[in-house]
Amino acid sequence: MRSKMANPSYTLIFMALICVTAAAAATKNKLYSIENSNVGLCKSLVETQGYTCQEHQVTTEDGYVLGLQRIPNGRFGNKTADKLPILLQHGLLLDASSWLLNPPEESLPFILADHGFDVWLSNARGTRSSRGHTSLSPNDPAYWEWSWDEMVVYDLPTSVQYVRDQTGQKLHYVGHSMGTLVVLAAFSEKKLFNLLRSAALLSPVAYLGQIPSLILRTAAETFLAEEVKLLGFPEVPNEQIIKLEQSICRSPGIDCSDLMAAIGGPNCCLSHSSMDAFFKNLPQPTSTKNLIHFAQMIRKGTIEMYDYSHAYMNMEHYKKPTPPMYNMANIPKDIPLFLSYGGRDSISDVNDVGVLLDDLEDHDKDKLVVQYREDYAHLDFIMSVNANQLVYNPLEAFIRLH
After folding, report:
1. Which of 56, 129, 168, 201 is a plausible cystine mate for 180, CB 3.0–4.6 Å?
2. What is the CA radius of gyration of the chain?
3. Catalytic residue selected from 149, 155, 345, 349
């Protein structure tokens, strides 16, 4: 049974984040700084481990310049012909660095590269590798007028098509958290399945109506993200929040791994070194509108496009007074899917995953693999010291079948 009460220290941190956001709004300071923000991920996290790495850029139809990293070979130069390409997409408030914080033998991209795959890492718009635009600056509020809807329509198809064009092959896909949501939404709209061989979904996020994270549910039900946007902040996190987080995490008696547990569930198997790397590289920015969209999902328990809250505004965007739904039951039944979810995950809750699995009940049985890890929480799927054996080995076996 999960505790119904939050630790008082979590509540104080949560309230402090609200207060610092309001204080920062008064100054209108929209700077963003983070360790290694001007150093590419290839140089800072991949080449340092002995791997060849390439930085790529691709431009979406709506003008966002996205960064991708490619690891074409393993450490031992396994240059096999016609390697299968595989694209990894990270979760909310993360970027591609979230896959690279463990040693090579424990990090999925390095494992896949060493096993002969052509590995590509994508970065959501607004993160440090994807802050470019053909006409807008991140200092322009218009730059942040998007939610994960735009990732479904623009970012994901553009990145997938680019990898397809570069390699000449259909590719495999691995998503974590928000990275699973965007591909599921795309599949439900009958998109991308002709470009992908399979999709592996780690800590899958689709329905969020039963989310047990008290911090996230409180934020949603108190309309915190909406308040932040009204205060004049189209982007989060801002510099003040990052500095506050770093200060809190260094305070005596505060263990920020406990804070992460309060948000995503008590992770079973994270090392101290990977958690140190996590807090040096993350969180990464996203739009306030994106957080509002996730809050709407929590409050409504549905998967639908961004709700503009007024019928006339929805009419303007959708030609109907309510947002269109993403119907998970419309996902093509023959697309190979691998789902791995955890019993201690407070974001991808087992009950919400159960609703998704109900939608997939008619999926071709030989094209659907479901793995349940009772002891895993949200970050375990990308940072656990034993995920290489418990999750990545079955995932790779699944990929090789398809």
Report:
1. 201
2. 20
3. 345
Q: What is the four-CA torsion angle of 141, 142, 144, 149, rounded to 10 degrees? A: 150
Report the topology of domain 41-401. Rossmann fold (3.40.50)
Burial of 362 (0-12, 13-18, 19+ CB in 10 A): exposed
Name the catalytic one among 172, 359, 378, 380: 378
Q: Tell me, rounded to whole angstroms, the distance of Cα 298 from its chain centroid.
A: 16
Mean pLDDT: which of 9-13, 20-24, 328-332 is highest?
328-332
Told to judge if 345 belongs to the known catalytic residues of this protein, a careful annotator would answer yes
Instruction: Kindly report whether the global pTM for this prediction surpasses the value 0.90.
Output: no
- Partnered with residue 369 across adjacent β-strands are 338
Residue 56: strand, helix, or coil: strand
Strand partners, 199: 173, 337
Locus of tokens 């409050």: 299
Catalytic residue, candidates 107, 177, 198, 287 = 177
Q: In degrees rounded to 5, what are phi and psi of residue 67?
A: -95, 140
pLDDT > 80? residue 254: no
Res. 11: pLDDT tops 50: no
Note the pLDDT tens digit of each residue in 66-112. Answer: 999 999 999 887 665 578 999 999 999 999 999 999 999 999 999 99
pLDDT at 241 over 60: no
Whether residue 40 contacts residue 285, with contact meaning beta carbons closer than 8 Å, is answered with no
User: 251: buried, middle or exposed (CB in 10 Å: 19+, 13-18, 0-12)?
Assistant: exposed
SS3 letters for 320-380? CCCCCECCHHHCCCCCCEEEEEECCCCCCCHHHHHHHHHHCCCCCHHHEEEEEECCCCCCH
Q: What local confidence, expressed as pLDDT, does residue 16 receive?
A: 45
Distance CA 174, CA 179 (A): 8
Between helix 256-264 and helix 239-250 the angle, nearest 10°, is 120
Peptide bond into 237 cis (omega under 30): yes
Residue with tokens 């911090």: 215
Residue with tokens 């979810």: 341
**Helix, strand, coil % over all residues of the chain, rounded to 5:** 45, 15, 40
